[in-house]
């Protein structure tokens, strides 16, 4: 196997099982051709066929062509409707308009930097740009894996400030609840008592609740895009113990089946709850509270009471404890109290 220059391009000559292949390197440098040759060697060593590999490299795809193929083949198959809708929008309105006409194997690190600069000039936050780059990066990594690209551009994410999140302390929680009633009060009360996500609250059904054993099992997530029940985030169910207050509230209105919290017979409308929370927040003199703020409040109040982070992780349904660690700093007072238990009079220490 050798590399050679023909015209202005580098080519790799291959003899394999009595057949000769001459494949144009997607990179126009000698080093790139050497990397390309190493990729082919690896495929041969693994016993993978190279005929399709040759065809793919004869017909260079544009980013737009590959992106939609990737979307249909991977994104639509492996993700939930909300994630699919998000990826479709990022491709159609942002990534393809910028990279669409470029060959998938010719996108450079400089092209990525130009994209970041163009998006920043439009006033977008670094976090927003990073979210777009995450989809772009996944697309290119799959292009490398599926089409044997020799390399893909380096995609470095922009620096973002530490995420700030709003939560209510116990006094603020009590004040907020004072300005809610009926179904709105019940939804907010259960959210504060369980830390459930919005879609999990919407998808909560009576057969998920065991009042005798004082537990609630998260089995569903309501998808607003398709208006249907799906599995929870991460496809993991979890069981949450219920407070006495939550048990009493649910027992008063218990039914045999159907959604626990409904509007017009179906899952409750999150927009309506958001409006009620905004109004109650204003009356209570608090910054605007959302359903996700209630989830943060659940976790934050547990941390401030000294509940171990691993336990909070399980209750929230986080797959990665790093996400739960955002609440760790709130338990610093507990650490101080723990160390105080080691204090002893100085004369007692000398005697020992």
Describe this structure in words.
The protein has 352 residues and is mainly alpha-helical. Helix content is 53%, strand content 11%. It has helices at 30-45, 51-58, 63-78, 81-99, 109-121, 126-147, 170-177, 182-194, 198-202, 244-252, 270-284, 291-304, 309-316, 321-324, 332-340, 346-351, and strands spanning 2-6, 9-16, 19-24, 209-210, 215-218, 221-223, 228-230, 238-241, 262-263, 266-267. The strands form 4 sheets. Strands 1-2-3 form a 3-stranded antiparallel sheet. A 3-stranded antiparallel sheet has the order 4-5-8, with no helix packed on it. Strands 6-7 form a two-stranded antiparallel sheet. The longest helix has 22 residues, at 126-147. It is elongated, with a radius of gyration of 28 Å.
């Amino acid at each position: 196997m050798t590399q050679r220059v023909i015209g202005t391009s580098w080519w790799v000559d291959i003899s394999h099982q009595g057949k000769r292949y001459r494949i144009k390197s997607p990179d126009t440098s000698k080093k790139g051709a050497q990397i390309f040759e190493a990729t082919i060697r690896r495929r041969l060593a693994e016993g993978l066929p190279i005929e399709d590999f040759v065809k793919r490299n004869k017909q260079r795809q544009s980013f737009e062509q590959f992106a939609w193929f990737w979307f249909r083949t991977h994104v639509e198959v492996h993700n939930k409707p909300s994630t699919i809708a998000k990826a479709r929008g990022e491709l159609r309105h942002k990534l393809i308009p910028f990279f669409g006409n470029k060959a998938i194997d010719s996108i450079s690190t400089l092209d990525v930097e130009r994209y970041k600069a163009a998006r920043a000039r439009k006033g977008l936050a670094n976090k927003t740009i990073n979210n777009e780059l995450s989809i772009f990066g996944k697309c290119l990594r799959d292009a490398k894996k599926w089409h044997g690209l020799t390399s893909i551009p380096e995609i470095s994410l922009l620096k973002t400030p530490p995420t700030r999140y709003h939560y209510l302390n116990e006094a603020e929680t009590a004040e907020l609840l004072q300005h809610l009633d009926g179904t709105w009060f019940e939804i907010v009360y259960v959210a504060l008592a369980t830390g459930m996500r919005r879609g999990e609250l919407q998808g909560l059904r009576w057969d998920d609740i065991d009042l005798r054993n004082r537990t609630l099992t998260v089995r569903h997530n309501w998808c607003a895009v398709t208006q249907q029940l799906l599995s929870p985030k991460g496809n993991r169910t979890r069981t949450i113990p219920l407070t006495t207050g939550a048990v009493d509230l649910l027992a008063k209105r218990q039914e045999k089946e159907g959604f626990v919290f409904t509007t017009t017979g179906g899952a409750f409308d999150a927009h309506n709850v958001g409006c009620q929370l905004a109004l109650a927040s204003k009356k209570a003199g608090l910054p605007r509270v959302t359903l996700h703020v209630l989830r943060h409040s659940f976790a934050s109040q547990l941390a401030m009471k000294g509940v171990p982070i691993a336990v909070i992780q399980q209750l929230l349904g986080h797959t990665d404890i790093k996400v739960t660690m955002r609440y760790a700093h709130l338990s610093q007072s507990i650490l101080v109290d723990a160390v105080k238990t080691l204090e002893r009079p100085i004369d007692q220490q000398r005697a020992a």
